[in-house]
Specification:
Length: 722
């Protein structure tokens, strides 16, 4: 195929060199990415949704769905082809834009533009007069700017057009087949997605359609079925995203992965369930990102399934689906559906206990409902100690809703408490064996022994973080709903119950932020009940004819869904604005480039071992110690086999789980690489200097991503452990 490469190279040089001129040197980089693209795109999409009717909304939905799918295809093909960019292979290539960090074949720019042109052409034929020239111009700019060969652009254009036309045809055929059976009312209103004609009255007789009896029940079932379909699709998308390797592990995930290699009844700072789940996930999928994170999307799926059924039974199917959709458009919940920390299982068991508890507090509540609630709270405790706070919610509800207090004379609540306490035994036993170290750690972490110093700095930080992570529109709406529900608490026990399942957690941490820093994930358990409260109250207002509820919902989804999508792939922001984000502004910085970090450390260790003595690695933070263990292949194999050579620095008192595992003090006479993540040069810690005969500064190394310095690691060669 050398002749094809020769033709491709000749074509590239013709466009990149022969056609070069001052006008194109300004115009072509602008076409590849400019600050006006995103606002114009959002305005255009908004106008189509607002004024375009069924055709405009379908067009926007098809574009969003197929562009997301198409970008996944383009990225997979880039990695499969692994073709270097022209500026890598050709020394004379003129590079007019950023170098990027991906491969060359196919061009995503060309693919996305031709995909968009194809979809727009299906719904608006006249759009071809504008979209085709723009797609051709952008595709040409990629060659002119020196970042793609001509065949990269041709392949991207063909794939994009194929996905655009083929995707619309396939989804229309699917709707014609399944829509008639699963969503009969909606199908009657819009029988075709490719040539949409909206029929306002779904009950009007249509040829070859059976009559519909009890339209209200059918409509309710449709919303629930749509919820099930949405939940299933999101599970597949999340698992595929994790398996794609787009992001790497965070510090806590890698740290807790190491816990799963040392199974125990409990751990220094957390209960044991996270380690048990990671042990199961890595035995299913191996010691990979998917193995570590597998149960995060599983937890998110079960949460969505539980609240869908719960809200459909307590409110209606439409409200249940809206709640599932809102949770997916909330950044805090989206993070919990991907990152596997202690929060996903905690939120799952808090939600399960809330649902079982609602059945239990009813006048006809059964003892087994209480036992289930106690079991879920016990499993929540094994996820995070905060789960014990759910008992406060139950006690407050019994105090404020007299009919629920009759259960205090029955065995149910006490059996629930007994089951909950039984679940605490692993933690109690482990701590009894380790001098109650977790209690001391939690006291230090919460600064419970210190005096109270009022400050608004942490309060402002926490409020600002929650405003963004809970979706600004939904955050304001939740506060509004809580105020209204509290005023009407005696008339709506269900609303009061949801209020008390969420507000004490949120307000308690909000008040604590006047004393200490509060991390946003600490209130994760409050999101589901507070959003359920908002939906239940909002649905009542919606049915009462208050149109503002619908507008707030649309605004929240319109803001939240794009943000959640871009959170999953921040490089798309760079494609939109035409330049990479600054590293500290990149929301994915903490889950990227750890493989490069580990490679730098591994190369330094290999160099030190060439001096003739075995060498190991010491980290100054439990997080980077764990990440280097995971992303340095030899270190991962050694850790899994129980023979680690990457260690956390020695301490005389417990400050992490590493204190309880074998360290490096038995490696007398050996050498080591000490690593620390830095912003600038630092001196080695005193204890490291004392532990070795000599410590030599190897300097600061940098990891790069798309030309950006993502992080810096300073290395020290430590020779002759004393």
């Amino acid at each position: 195929m050398s002749w094809l490469q020769s033709i491709d190279t000749a074509g590239f040089r013709f466009v990149n060199h022969t056609l070069a001129n001052p006008v194109f040197d300004v115009l072509m980089p602008w076409l590849s990415g400019n600050p006006f693209f995103l606002p114009v795109l959002l305005i255009g999409a908004g106008l189509l949704v607002w004024k375009g009717g069924a055709r405009g909304r379908l067009c926007v939905a098809m574009l969003a769905l197929l562009l997301a799918a198409g970008n996944g295809v383009f990225e997979e093909l880039k990695h499969a082809c692994a073709r270097p960019r022209p500026f890598v292979d050709l020394a004379d290539a003129r590079l007019l834009v950023g170098r990027g960090g991906s491969f060359s074949m196919p061009s995503s720019h060309a693919g996305n533009w031709f995909l968009s042109a194809a979809v727009l052409f299906v719904y608006y034929r006249r759009s071809g007069w504008a979209m085709l020239p723009l797609a051709l111009a952008v595709s040409f700019s990629r060659v002119y700017n020196g970042v793609h060969y001509p065949t990269d652009v041709l392949a991207g254009a063909a794939l994009g057009a194929g996905i655009g036309f083929g995707g619309v045809w396939f989804l229309d055929a699917l709707w014609r087949s399944l829509g008639r059976r699963w969503f009969p009312l909606w199908w009657r209103q819009l029988p075709s997605w490719r040539a949409p004609v909206f029929h306002p009255d779904p009950l009007a007789w249509q040829p070859d359609t059976p009559p519909i009896r009890d339209a209200a029940a059918v409509a309710d079932r449709q919303w629930v079925r749509l919820g099930y379909l949405f939940i299933a699709v999101m599970l597949v998308v999340r698992v595929a995203y994790i398996a794609s390797g787009t992001i790497q592990l965070s510090k806590d995930e890698a740290y807790q992965w190491l816990w799963s290699k040392h199974l125990a009844l409990s751990y220094y700072s957390k209960p044991p369930l996270i380690a048990w789940l990671q042990w199961t996930g890595t035995h299913l999928w191996g010691d990979t990102e998917l193995g570590v994170r597998f149960f995060s999307p599983v937890c998110a799926t079960v949460i969505a399934w539980l609240v869908l059924r719960f809200m459909a039974a307590q409110v209606n199917g439409r409200a249940a689906f809206v709640l599932v959709l809102m949770l997916s458009a909330t950044p805090l919940m989206a993070l919990g559906s991907i990152l596997m920390t202690i929060d996903p299982p905690l939120v799952l068991f808090w939600t399960a206990a809330m649902i079982a508890g609602w059945r239990a507090v009813q006048p006809h509540g059964r003892t087994r409902d209480w036992v289930w609630a106690g079991l879920w709270m016990g499993l929540g405790f094994l996820s995070k100690y905060l789960a014990l706070g759910q008992w406060l919610s139950f006690l407050l509800f019994m105090a404020l809703w007299p009919p629920a207090r009759r259960h205090l004379a029955k065995p149910g609540p006490y059996l629930a408490l007994l089951v909950n306490l039984a679940c605490t035994l692993p933690v109690v036993i482990w701590n009894a064996q380790h001098h109650w170290v977790t209690v001391s750690h939690l006291e230090d972490r919460a600064h419970m022994t210190g005096s109270w110093h009022l400050t608004t700095r942490f309060f402002a930080d926490f409020t600002g973080a929650m405003f963004g992570l809970m979706n600004p529109i939904f955050f304001v709406a939740v506060i509004w709903a809580c105020v209204q529900v509290w005023r009407k608490r005696q008339a709506h026990p269900f609303w009061l119950y949801l209020f008390l399942m969420g507000v004490p957690v949120f307000v308690g941490h909000w008040l604590f932020s006047f004393k200490e820093r509060v991390l946003p994930n600490w209130v994760a358990t409050s999101v589901v009940p507070l959003f359920a409260l908002l939906v239940a109250y909002g649905d009542a207002r919606w049915r009462a004819g208050v149109g503002a509820v619908k507008r707030w919902l649309i605004a929240g989804l319109a803001l939240g869904l794009p943000v959640v999508v871009l959170m999953h792939e921040s490089n798309w922001i760079a494609k939109i604005i035409g330049r990479p984000l600054p590293p500290r502004a990149d929301p994915l910085r903490r889950v990227r480039n750890w493989d490069a970090f580990a490679r730098i450390v591994g190369e330094a260790r290999d160099q030190l071992e060439r001096e003739g003595k075995p060498a190991f690695v010491i980290g100054d933070h439990y997080g980077i110690t764990s990440l280097v263990t995971f992303y340095l292949p030899a270190a991962k194999q050694a850790a899994v086999a129980g023979r680690p050579f990457v260690f956390y620095q020695h301490t005389d008192h417990p400050d992490s789980q590493f204190y309880f595992w074998p360290g490096y003090r038995d490696r007398k006479g050996q050498n080591a690489i000490f690593m620390t993540e830095v912003d600038g040069p630092v001196q080695p810690p005193t204890n490291i200097v004392q532990e070795f005969e000599s410590v030599t500064d190897l300097g600061v190394r940098e990891t790069l991503d798309r030309g950006r310095v993502m992080r810096r690691v300073q290395l020290f060669a430590c020779r002759g452990q004393r």
